[in-house]
Design goal:
By secondary structure, this protein is mostly helical. The protein has ten helices and no strands. The two termini are about 20 Å apart. It holds the Pfam family CMD.
């Protein structure tokens, strides 16, 4: 671990301000926010800006939750981000992904054309920083412009987050360990 979660006795007004309006006050502590947010709040201004963007992708995105979680899980697998993977497996199940589909995401093999195109978009963006014309055509047959934009930014955001998690050495939360 390169950056430890900020200890509770160091959570000051700058941390409270960073989380204000984004999380309920009862979650303004390291135990309730989990290791990721507790680590990010070492830089309160960055945390606030990032969480606003990330919360749009989680709660305000035009992309259906199932597709979002399929993309996030593929990012987590490609980046070997165990924290992100564990967290989003549960979210994926809640969004309608089956255990077989989650296993297929790990392997990069899904049977549905749209699902395969989402996996391809993640793979292409992670490897080449561009979605191929062939993949874009499949996606564009199912999504409007805003959905396409939200999908690309979801993949990019979670790729960036995985890089930060892996670099900082953010450890899975204790409740995530129990679920494994």
């Amino acid at each position: 671990m390169r950056l430890a979660p900020l200890p509770a006795d160091q959570w000051d007004d700058s941390v409270t301000n960073a989380l204000s309006g984004l999380m309920p006050p009862e979650r303004h502590n390291p135990e309730a926010t989990g290791n990721l947010v507790a680590t990010l709040v070492r830089h309160p201004q960055l945390t606030r800006a990032f969480l606003r963007f990330n919360f749009h992708l989680l709660y305000g995105s035009t992309v259906p939750a199932r597709i979002r979680e399929l993309a996030v899980l593929r990012v987590a697998r490609l980046t070997n981000c165990e924290y992100e993977w564990r967290h989003h497996v549960d979210m994926g199940r809640e969004a309608g992904l089956s255990d077989d589909e989650i296993a297929g995401i790990e392997r990069g093999e899904l049977s549905d054309d749209l699902d395969r195109a989402v996996l391809s978009a993640v793979d292409e963006l992670q490897h080449d920083s561009v979605v191929s014309d062939a993949t874009w055509s499949v996606l564009a047959a199912h999504f409007d412009e805003r959905q396409l934009m939200d999908l690309v930014f979801t993949i990019g955001c979670y790729g960036s987050l995985a890089m930060a998690i892996n670099t900082f050495g953010v450890e899975p939360d204790v409740n995530m360990e129990a679920e494994r």
